[in-house]
Amino acid sequence: MSPESEAQGAHKAAFRPSDDDKKMSAYELWRVHKRKRDIREAYVAHWNATVAATGTGRPVDAIISPIAPYAAPPHGKNKSADYTMIWNLLDYTALVVPVTKVDPSIDVKKPPHEFLNPKDKETYELYDPNVFANAPVSIQVVGRTLEEEAVIGISEIVDAALKAASSKL
Length: 169
Fold this sequence. Notes:
Blueprint lengths: L2 H10 L13 H23 L2 H4 L8 E4 L18 H6 L2 E9 L16 H9 L9 E8 L4 H20 L2
Antiparallel strand pairs: 1-3, 2-3
């Protein structure tokens, strides 16, 4: 099973019981931790396999990705942890780098379109340029477990590159 399908399976199977759930037995807790270990092992193997793609003889140093499918929403409106929860599960290091802020004169809402799924439509309906005005738009730099210093260093390089690029606009 690929790491992506494992992560999707982890998303469907709650790792934390809700208040409505029955108490978890020691055996059930052991199974949850075993599944978490298996997912982590699959991701380590996937990350290590990037050696074949880098051309340096080393795996990738970090992943740069969005934090959410939208800019920072108003308080209480964040509906998605899809871009961050996998890193929590894996115990990977992630650091947020602000890129810009929402400018209602530039970041206008696009006309309605065919939505990919209900979540896509919900994300579309959440956005209002005036409500999101000045909200930060950010990315995350993700590294492996215990790679905090490397992620900080890479984030500084990414931040400097973003600033240099925006000063040329």
